[in-house]
Each structure stands twice: as structure tokens, then as C-alpha cells.
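Protein chain data
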Amino acid sequence: MKVKKSILWLVYVILSGCMFLSCSGNKEQQGKENEKNITENNETDFGDTEKSDITEGPNITGDSKIEKNVTEVKSEALENYVEKNIPSVYEYAQGKEHFCNVLINRENKIEFYTYNDEEGSRHFFQYTLVEDEAGTTWEREALPWCDSFGKEIGEGDDWVKVFVGEDGNDYAWYLGTDGNAHLVKRVENYSVEIMGLDWGYSNFIEPAVLENGNIVMANLGRECSVYDPADGSVLERFRCGFYLSLCVAGNQIYIGDSLGSSVQHYDAQKKEFAETLTAGFDTTIRTAVSGDDVYVCNMHGIYRAKASGGQFQKVLDAGTYHFANDSANLWKFFVIGDSFYVAYGEDGCSIKKYFPAGEDDVAEKSLEVYSLKTNDVILDMISEFQDMYPDTKIIYETGEGADGSVTTADRIRALNTRIFAGDGPDILLMDGMSVDSYFEKGLLADLSPVLGDLKDELTENILSAYTVDGIICMLPARFKVPMILACGQEEEQYDTLRAFVEYSEENGGVMSPGYTHANIFEMLYYNYPPKLISEEQTVNRDAVSEFLELFKRLCISEKADSTNNWPATYLSGLNPANFFAQGKVDFEFITLTGGYSLGIYPEAVKMRGGQMLPCRRRFYPNTLVAMNALSRKQDLAGDFVRFVFSYKTQKRDVGSSGYPIHKTVLDEFAALDMSKYISGGGDFWLRDSGPEENAKMIAYVKKVDEPFMPEGNLWDIMMEGAMAYLNGKQSLEESVEAVVGKIQLYIYEQ
């Protein structure tokens, strides 16, 4: 039995105020159990509670969010850097091996540690990265000294880390079958335990050893401790940021401060704090040291500061690099010379290298991709595509922050001007755009001949939903599936928006506590979408009025949180299975966001004697890919489209982006058995879904055929009107008039 620590969710709930979040977290695919040690130790499972966990993603070509107090020094900026995949260690493995650490040693070489599990024991291996004129490879070496504790490790995949101390000795930390945490040191071909440490039994820590032999440990509780190895006594303990931001060099400790916005420096030789390396980071950070410089990598870029003190300065912008992806599992960060290496919690820990482009690295071709808002799925694809096609540079542009753009309408208007002028992007993501308008104007190329035989590998229900007279003008790379958790309700109580609001009012609120106004608006708009425009292209005033009125009534009935402005979470899949299972609520709207998202829902429903019901046959498309029919690069755009829907790309897990549309990948999800994992705490535990539940879910996923994607402009107009009415700035009549007028103008502009 494997336990996912619910403390991660508790920390996230406390910080965000979103008391309705589920404790299910992200899962890893069976057959890739070696990945779990990454994702469950990382922020994708909401263990990383830096402020970034509730911030928006970066703007790639617009006014990217710049950290406060971070000095931009253009003269020091690094440009023309190339992103390259380092070959996977598992290509060199002899049988199935699992990840248990990656680090940079004192010789500035990257070492990767794995283990296999044979007959109840674990055997460990070290891989050293070799980069020379012959290419990039890994050298494999067995670690027999680890055999002495291999049988004592508990069941968890991520309950062991092998590492090298700054003192040059080998160490390992593990959670044992005896229910205790252990730290051992290599002595010849055996291990000797270091006693007296007050480490709790948790896999959410980062251990290190200084040059003087003192032991360092940072944990999820945001404490960094320094221990005497002689007796395990505490020499120093201080507050810190997320534990994976820890980096040690010699006798120096660098780790994010308690807010995660700067890097604090503790000199363990002098036993005193040095000057804090200041910044204003608002997103999770990873730290590295090279010479006299300290580096930080986050989703906005790479920064540098002198170890002696001062402010961080951005030296490399995130651009379209993989770490710009908000869903990327940034795990560790290393600097070697003028190259950067980032280890990601994906595919059992993948590593990407960032280095100055040479003559052979200059792209000969370019392809432009456009989306209204930053899209994590396409960022992931761009990174992988450019690694596979190094001769092609992908230029990713978003409408966020574009010159002269204030509203979604402004952004779309500017985009259309470019398209009609023959200077538009080659690939369009239609998320939030007027799909019908682009189709009717013939601006979208037919994807059928581009996909060719690949169409046979894609699920029929999604293909049919986007096929008109044999033409496929767009396809979603991912899609999400809405469901309802119900317990004892009649369908009539939630079949319409009015019925649901009345049901809530009669019961004094029926959903989990803590939803914000933005949450309520998102749930209602997606589950009860108002028909705002009639077939005659006039505004449906009654639909506008009813939606605004009922939205306000539900906010009052559900006692929605008016003090916080957290982002809405309905589409993200952060939903309240535990509240439902414990009988605290009897009804919830939920969104399933991929093969691992079914999680504990079946167990929760079974516990309550309730039901998990479909929302008609509706699905929510994500990353709706189309080709600009006026593009001069049809062949290159076609290569990108085929790449997007290939098995290899569809198989990639990108956060909570949704289900892929590739049949084989869906079938693999149907066979998942996650039942060995449980979530909860104390006397309350819920088991994850097994193959029977997953097979039923995927069977339904293959049937949904009613896409719903709100137009961004209409969404903005309705949101503005709803909030003005809710907050008492306008009467219902005034809000309706304002909304109707703006929608009518929008219709005229189409």
C-alpha cells in the first residue's frame, strides 16, 4: 500500500483559502512508477506552496510578469540559446529501473541515480553524463554499498535518495519498513547509519552534507536544519522556502526565504547568515551555484547574483523553453560553464540542456504559432518539436499584452488584420476565438489531407465533432470531461440553472465551502452556458438577464468568498472528493482533466452510496489546433500538426490539460491500476481507481461528442456585467443594458 501525504493538500488549502480542493493530486502512469518520486515530491501535487501556485503563466511575447525588484540588465542578457534533450538514462538501463536522485558532483558532472527491485531487494546504479565530440551518453556503474540497506526501504517509489556530500562521501536517505527515516553514509562497501537525527517520517525533504561534514535537511514544513553528524544534534534551524530550492556549495547554504521571493545565504562555516540575495520572485525557484555566482531558474527565466550579495538579474528569458510551461515539473537546476541543465519530473526525470547556439544550431526555417492566452500544452509541444526539428525555430506569440490590445476583442481584431494581410501566424489555437466566424470566412485549412492515415489513430467521437462536410478545420490536442457528483438528488433539481439555484437556496448552499465569485461564475457558465446570440444574430436579452440574476443569487446562497481573488479552479480539476466522501456536501460539479484524474472519485461515490453522472455528452476542448489557410508555410505547418497528434506527443502528460485524442493512449489509461495508492489522513482514507473504474471512464470519454468552448470576448463581457451587478455597482437592468450593447457591437464586428 502506498500513501500520498495529504499534508501537501492541507498546505495548499491553507495558503489559497480554497477549502474545496480535492486531495487526489496528480498520478503517474502504471509502468512508469519511477516517475512518482518526481511528481509527488513536486509542485504538481501541490507540495510546492510558493506564491506562484496561484499565479498566472507567463506572457511569451507580451508584457511578461516581471518579478518585483529584479533588475533587468540588457547588456548581460544571454541570447540565441538552444534547448536540447539529454538522452534518457533509461535507454541505458538493464531492465526496469526507478529514479532516486540527480545531482551535480564536485567535479561538475551530472550524476543520475536509479534502482531496480528484484525479489524484494533493491540494487542501485549511478549514471554519469558524458558529453564529448562523440556525442552525449551515460556511463553506468553499480553501487553495491547500497545493498546493505536495500531490503530495509519501505514500499514507496520515492522513499530513497542517494547523493554525494560536499565532503566527497556517498550518502543515502530512506524511509524504512520500521516506520523511521534513516540517513546512512558509505564506508567502503557498506553503509553506516548516522544516529540521533530528529527527521520525521516524510518523503518531502531534501538532504545534503556540507564540506565540513555537517548535515543539512530542508522539509515541506519550510524549515532548514543543520545537524552535527557526531550525535545528530541541531546546530542551526531557520525558516525557508520550498525544500527543493535548497542548494549547498562547500559550507555555504542557499535556499529560498520563507516567502520564496529571495534567496537566503547561510555560511555554515562561520555559523552566521550572509547577505540575502534579493529579488521579488513570485513563482517557484530552483537554485544552483557556479563559481562566485548564484543562479535561479523559474518559469520566467534564469537569474544570476553574486554570492557575496546583491540583487538577482535576469540573464536568460524563459521564452518558449520548457521551463516557461506552468505545468512543467521543474525539479533541479545545474550550471556548468555557459550551459544550464534543468531536470524535470517527467518520464522518470528528463533533463534538458540550454547552451549557446553554434553555427550548426542556427535554424533555417521558422513557424509562427498564435494563441490568445499562454497555453501549457503548446509550450510543451514547441519544446519537443524544436528538439526533433532543430532546423526549425518556433515563434510563439500570445495576445496577452500585445501593442494596443486592451480587451479580447482588441486582440482578435489585431490578429484578423494580420491574417487578411497575408502576414498571420501559421498555426492558430482557436481557444476563446470565434470558431464559426473563422470557418465561414475560409481562413482555416482542411486538416484531413494533412493528417492522412493518422486520422485512423484518433478517437472517432472527437473527430466527428469537428468534421463538417468531410472537412476538419480544427482539432483539440486535449479535452476535459465534466461530471456531477450527486447523492440523493432528483435530476430536476440541477437540470437547469434556475432549478439548481432554487435547490441551493432551499438548502442554504449545497456545494463545498470557500468558492470565490470567479469559481461560481466559471462553474455556471460551463455547466449552464447561456445562449447569448440568436440564430438571427441578435442578443438574447432574457438569457443575459436570467444568467446575471441567478449568478448573484447562487453567490449569496453558497456564501461565496468575496474577500479573495484566487483564480477559478473548476477547469483545473481541483475538486472536493473528500468533502463529498465525508458527507459534508451532497453535490458537486467536477472536471476530469486526464487519464490520472479519475483518482478517488469512484471510492468517494461508493462510500456515500451516490453517483458520478455525465453532463449530457459534453466535453471541453483544450488547445484547439488549426492551420491558417493563407499561410505560405503549409508544408511546415502540416509537419507541426502531424507532430501534435502523433502517439509520442499525445502520450506526454502536461499537468491538468485533459485527455489526449489518440486511441492507443486512451486505451493505456483504461488499463491503469492506481488502486495501490491511497489519499487522506488519520482514520479517513480513499483508494485510487483500479482498471475496472478506469476502463469505464475511458469508455465514456470515447463517447462525448458535444464540445463547449466559450468565446473569450463574450466571456469577458458577461464576467464584467456579472461582477458589476453582484458588487452593487450597477442594477440588474443597468448591467443587462451594458452587456447587451457590448455583445451587439461584437456581432456587428464579425
